[in-house]
Amino acid sequence: MSFIHVEKLHKSFTVLEKRRKGSLFRERKTVEALRDLSFEIGRGELVGYIGPNGAGKSTTVKILSGIMTPESGEVTVGGRIPWADRREHVRRIGVVFGQRMQLWWDVPILDSYLLLKDIYRIPDEKYHARLTELTEVLKLEELLRTPLRLMSLGQRMRAELCGSLLHRPELLFLDEPTIGLDAVSKLSLREFLKWENETYGTTILLTTHDMEDIAALCSRVMVLGHGRKLFDGNLETLLERYDTVRTVKACYENPSVMPALPASVTASREGEGILFSYSPGETPTAEVLRLLQAAGDLRELTIEPQNIDHLIAAMYREMDL
Amino acid sequence: MKAYLSVFHIRRKMELQYRGAMLGGILCQMFFGLILISLYRALYASKPQELPISHVVSYVWLQQAFFRMLLASDPDLGDKIRTGSISYDLCRPMDLYGFYYIRIMAQKLTGSLMRGIPMLCFALFLPRGWGLTLPSSPPGLAISVLALILGLLCVCALENITMAFTMRTLDAKGVQAMLNLLMLILAGNILPLTLFPDSWQKVITLLPYAQLLDAPIRFYTGEYGMDRALRILLVQIVWVFLLTLLGRLMWSRNQKRLILQGG
Hints:
The complex is a heterodimer of chains A (321) and B (263).
Chain A: E1 4-16, E2 28-41, E3 46-50, H1 57-64, E4 72-77, H2 86-91, E5 93-97, H3 109-119, H4 124-137, H5 153-165, E6 171-175, H6 183-200, E7 203-207, H7 211-217, E8 220-225, E9 228-233, H8 235-242, E10 246-252, E11 266-270, E12 273-278, H9 285-295, E13 298-303, H10 308-318
Parallel strand pairs in A: 3-7, 3-8, 5-6, 6-7
Antiparallel strand pairs in A: 1-2, 1-4, 8-9, 10-12, 10-13, 11-12
Chain B: H1 2-16, H2 19-46, H3 53-65, H4 67-70, H5 75-83, H6 86-90, H7 96-124, H8 138-169, H9 172-186, H10 198-204, H11 208-212, H12 214-221, H13 229-257
Helix pairs in contact in B: 1-7, 2-3, 2-7, 3-7, 3-12, 7-8, 8-9, 8-12, 8-13
């Protein structure tokens, strides 16, 4: 059986609705956060877990980390049921919630690490070896004596990550770890995650809205929407399927030129140039470019880069999320 | 066990970060003490009471010195619950009740000792009738320390119950305000319990709030003699037991129905 095994998972929440006029009580409504979710993750995989806000990503992570119990369904992580065997289970996992803090705000981070050492009962040598290694890779050496409250967001995230990995978890959950980080911090964080995954075979489940994170790190992506799994596979396959519209902007020396193109290509004037959108499946990019060049003297030509965010937005739209 | 010591240590360290606040607290509590004492002196001047004024003065000083033990809740714990950072604590291989209990205890103990000791030293050197008197007897002092420890266990259990309420209401302020008011009155911070009518005292001294500071102070001043020590300590132990049990029950129920918001 694979490392993480999830089968037919259901979880719903009860929410109170707005009180209707004339009725005394508010009505209760059940919202299904997860419906019939099943997947398998093998040891050492680095999986991206995406979906629009409210899709049920965090709920899945909470169930997998043993904080929440589902209504029905089967979950095992390394052969253990997370919520039933909570203490043993949490000893082996690490969690980073990007918008929350685990380290103590007012004391040097080294003190927080010492506390974690005692909580996870890490032996002295192992702790020191691991701390040296992590502080080196995460560039934290000079910050160990600094309280968390004096750190920048990027430093804080690195410190949090170090805290979550001190006890060498087999499985790491990351909930939006790059949120609000600058470009340099993002890149170094990704590099680090890759290193941890390759060096120790740590299984990582990464929840994010940043598609660049996924593109840089994950060989496999799972898409969740309305509590259901909509896609499971590699990122290229996902993108190919939704890479349906591209745009080219052309400016001619003579602004009145209007090239003749197949009907499937739509054109609209935008400032001095003309914006063409086409689908590469019907009209290949080379064909479009040839026709544009034939129409007159081109001054400027820009092919809009493929934006993963747009593709994902298109996918969410198509899947009606 | 080591983990609990470690939690205690780090929370103590955190408390020590704010030395300025501590100094301010000491000055404020001293001011309060002096005001209250002048009030009771005025009362005694116009209508002497049965209880010697020196007892009342000592009562006031000890109450002020250990003010932090009664009325200082950890704002971080409430915030953790409100913001959801508590989910990190749920991911630890630790007992949540014990984890919070020890945090609360570290804060209360460090806070009150750091403020209390300098204050009591100051109060010992004040002129007669204004200052703290020495304990009635060495065994009285010993019993009073023991009673204070039991009182600390009681107040930590009470605070943890407040936290359990917070997990339901998501805001610590309401329940805390109510319980703090009860605490101020029934623990003897506003008016020493010894000055309440005798018939009232029979009931009030049995309530958990009287176990926190009132019982230890009365052993200190000698109002409770050795003959009553066993009975009073027993009442304290029963309350420690009951409050811990109730808190534990509430926490385990909370943990079962826990739904972490957002994210």
